[in-house]
Please model this.
Amino acid sequence: MLKSFEEDLGRVSFDVEPMKFKHKLIGHPSLSLENLAKVLPELPKHQVMYSKALNDLGINFDRAHIDHKNGMCLVETIESIKINPSYIAVKNPENHPTFKTLFHDMESDLTKLVQMKKKGTKAKDAMFWLFIASPNAQTPFHFDRYSNFLMQFRGSKEIAVFPPLDQRVISAEDYEAYIDQTEKRPAWKPEIDHLAQKFHFDVGEALHIPFSSGHYVKNGPEDVSISLSVFFHTDETIKLSNAMRVNHRLRRRMNKFGLAPSEVCKSSRRTAFKAHILPMANLDGGVMSRFL
Model:
């Protein structure tokens, strides 16, 4: 039995398409705005990023807290977030005691789901991201380096999710560069919007966002939004990530000769081979490390 989700998730197509379902965590005390106002100032500053409320899908989401400051301290931002348009993103809140039990329950549920879908023995590298935002705030277009389950606890939003690994949405080069931890980010192109599946998202609902799926969010007008993402890897997403890192490094060298590496895809033997050689490429001083 799952502790965090209402429905049998055997029908989830992991990392194939988005799917909306229900979670069991409505009213969880850790995720009330009152508790968050106490907890967030206790976290290390690098874990809590806040900015003006965002209203442009083309903004670099990773730099919003640097490029779009709201002129307030964190406490002021939390206390006035309903009337002063702001956006707060919190990395790894599970490190605080108030979230530890919730995180362990979620991690256990994800491992059961990964095993059920024969995607590996456990959910790997699981972590939380917490989002608090004013009414009408937007989360710019981006994609994540993980599979994602997003849960809503207050307010509502519309979420647009694009097909994973779709080069009409994001180029192979941009996928690879971001996965390999570079500063390059995919650009928002309004002409692709028709390719997205759009979901209205209310309190008590959860959404599976597949690995590498571009997406953006628009909050509803009626209330502050509080949502929680749990990011995680499966054996398959680790393989794809490693192959894309290798491709990015190959591409930089092959481009000089007008060439490009073969595309990373789920069933390719070349993809499996590239994933296998990444640990060797990361070893200092070896022949492979000098090549990649």
